[in-house]
Design goal:
The protein is mainly β. The chain has eight helices and 40 strands. The chain folds into five domains: 117 residues, Immunoglobulin-like (Sandwich), CATH 2.60.40; 178 residues, Rossmann fold; 92 residues, Jelly Rolls, CATH 2.60.120; 94 residues, Sandwich (Immunoglobulin-like); 106 residues, Immunoglobulin-like. The strands form nine sheets. Strands 4-3-2-5-6-7 form a six-stranded mixed beta sheet, with helices on both faces.
């Protein structure tokens, strides 16, 4: 005769705890605008200007929230001092009042002498901000750790973030070139001002334009090899504002703008006139080729022409595969041929050609494009040079007018490649408390070097990783790596967890790459679990075979455990092969439909039974089974 009984092993009630929005990004709702991100120096030397910075940052927030453009998607505040930074606070798009309150709490104190932890504060702000955010940095001092430059560039370029610097120190300082390199790489601005309210106000007004959704880049002049030159600016009919932006870490050049021949004259406004930044604006410019006559005292200045227009594009870099286009999780490597996918922002625009523009302003070969009707996008194959490049698009708008646009985010080739194992690139959806392991390879396409690996993620999300934080890799060699990611039990459904893996050679700005894994936190129903914990069926019954006399005189015992993480257990069915009976266990009321309760089951019988199977059902109707066979 068989016997069945339940054993209650324990009771563990699960309680969900929500995130504190001041320490974790609230992504439960997403606005259409970009993130507004502030990194502010709070050391004592900022005392004369910190009140102006506070006031103008608040006005910047109010201007962004109250304008007709989409409100910022979120807010980040990253104060930095010496010897520490933070706390870095992150706010959702609906928490502008809390963001303003945090700005108003900023004061200047301590910090000692320059330099300061500017790049640490900027890197923290970039890592906590989302893709395509706008970062404004306020500091009056050079950075203490210029070796962080490659890590900062990797983060801001990968996330397509624009970085602007406002420096209330009109005479500048040694080391300002580090900040200039960051703004050049992200199409940002470096503005030196006095510490008075009026000058900081002028700077923040210009920074406010960066949050507008119709900002475009018409041409990039690159870093000039001569003190003075003339440049042609093609202006199409859809462009209703143009800004000539000239910057230099020392002294910016001046310029004169001339309209197309035979067109009406236009008023040229000086929007910003500081020692190292000059911005000239024309509103409602006549279509055609404008000319900028630029006069500088020395070579080395940089320039670009920005505009306001509904005609623009986005891009992605990767490879065409049998299943379609696969975007690279990190940067491409120099010398390889990649596929660039172009998506115009206007439905009736047509892209005719795409090219790479080097940081010097020189254009690579312009290639024709292939149109993909299903996605309304265009693809082109281009070879990646050894230096950073910008993507330039030429085309025609719905009225047949020609246009040229350059994307503000550059492509920075790397000698390091990080390859995710197939399927690892896609976001995954996990419940709170679940985990995933991401596997990848680090490939060294440069010279032998000691690499550094840095893994950053939301608090408590990174459980383990390999290789170690520092490892040697020969030229042409590869090493496998992994990172195990846990979703905290307190993570709110609708939020996301992001983990960034960065590998670099500290002494090289071109030997750095990164991958990012995104986990969407969900509240997906989970099935119960069923596990055999012990069985004597093999030891007691295997040698008996089908002898009916012997099998009736020998007995077995099978033990199993059943758990449900969500809705709680409902029933357990037990079936036996070669037995006519099927049993259903009713669960005691103290565990019925309570989550995370472990129940033990014991089945016994004669060895005439060939197999025992347990089928457990939870209150949501999901099932799990486990069995043992002699």
């Amino acid at each position: 005769m068989a016997s069945l009984r339940l054993v209650l092993f324990g009771l563990a009630v699960f309680v969900a705890v929500g995130y504190n929005v001041a320490t974790a990004v609230d992504r439960s709702t997403r606005a259409q605008g970009t993130d507004l991100i502030l990194a502010v120096d709070t050391t004592g030397s900022m005392g004369p200007s910190i009140a102006a910075v506070r006031q103008k940052c608040v006005e910047l927030v109010n201007m962004a929230v109250s304008s007709d453009a989409p409100a910022p998607g979120g807010f980040v505040l990253s104060p930095f001092n010496d010897p520490g930074i933070g706390p870095v606070e992150v706010f959702s798009h609906s928490q502008s009042a809390a963001f303003i309150a945090a700005i108003n709490r900023l004061t200047a104190y301590d910090g000692g002498d320059t330099p300061e932890l500017c790049l640490e504060g900027l890197l923290a702000a970039s890592e906590r901000g989302r893709d395509r955010g706008i970062i404004h940095v306020f500091t009056d001092a050079p950075t203490k750790n210029p070796g962080l430059l490659s890590s900062v560039l990797s983060s801001v370029v990968k996330k397509k973030q624009m970085v602007n610097f406002v420096i209330p120190n009109p005479s500048g300082f040694a080391g300002i070139e580090v900040y200039q390199e960051i703004t050049d790489a992200t199409s940002g601005l470096l503005i030196t001002t006095s510490s008075n309210m009026a000058d900081i106000y002028a700077a923040t007004m210009i920074l406010g334009d960066a949050l507008l959704p119709d900002g475009v880049i018409l041409i990039k002049l690159g870093r000039s090899a001569v003190p003075s030159r003339s440049a042609t600016i093609p202006v199409d009919a859809s462009t209703y504002v143009i800004d000539l932006v000239l910057t230099d870490a020392s002294t910016a050049p001046t310029a004169t703008l001339r309209p197309p021949a035979g067109t009406r004259s236009s008023t040229v406004e000086m929007m910003l006139n500081t020692r190292n930044t000059k911005i000239y604006r024309v509103t409602n410019p006549a279509p055609g080729n404008w000319v900028a006559d630029i006069r500088g005292s020395a070579a080395g200045w940089t320039g670009e022409v920005r505009g306001r227009s509904p005609v623009d594009f986005s891009y992605a870099v990767g490879q065409r595969t049998d299943s379609g286009f696969q975007e690279y999780p990190g940067n491409p490597t120099s010398g390889e041929t990649v596929t660039v996918m172009i998506t115009p922002t206007c439905d009736d625009c047509q892209v005719t050609a795409v090219s790479f523009i080097r940081e010097s302003g020189a254009a690579d070969t312009t290639n024709a494009v292939t149109f993909h009707a299903a996605s309304k996008s265009y693809s082109v194959s281009l070879r990646v040079p050894a230096e950073s490049v910008f993507v330039k698009v030429m085309g025609r708008d719905g009225d047949g007018s020609s246009f040229e646009r350059i994307h503000r985010t550059p492509i920075r080739p790397s000698s390091i490649r990080i390859e995710m194992v197939s399927g690892g690139e896609s976001p995954v959806s996990l419940n709170p408390g679940e985990s995933v392991t991401v596997n990848y390879f680090v490939v060294n396409n440069g010279g032998a070097a000691t690499m550094q690996q840095k893994i950053t993620g939301d608090t408590g999300s990174v459980a383990s990783s390999s290789p170690p934080s520092s490892f040697y890799l020969g030229a042409g060699q590869r090493v496998s790596g992994h990172v195990s990611i846990n979703v905290p039990a307190s993570a709110a459904p609708g939020s996301t967890i992001e983990v960034l893996v960065t590998v670099s050679v500290p002494s090289s700005s071109s030997a750095i790459n990164s991958i990012r894994k995104v986990i969407n936190v969900v509240n997906r129903p989970r099935p119960p679990t069923c596990a055999i914990t012990s069985s004597t069926m093999l030891s007691s019954c295997a040698a008996i075979g089908d002898d009916s006399t012997r099998c009736r005189n020998a007995r077995y015992e099978v033990r199993a455990t059943f758990t449900d993480p969500d809705k709680g257990l409902r029933t357990v069915h037990v079936t036996r092969e070669n037995a006519v009976s099927m049993s259903t266990w009713s669960l005691p009321t103290e565990v019925f439909r309570i989550s995370n309760v472990t129940v033990g089951g014991i089945a016994t019988g004669t060895c005439c039974t060939r197999a025992v199977n347990f089928l457990v059902t939870n209150a949501g109707g999901l099932t799990a089974s486990c069995s043992v066979r002699r």
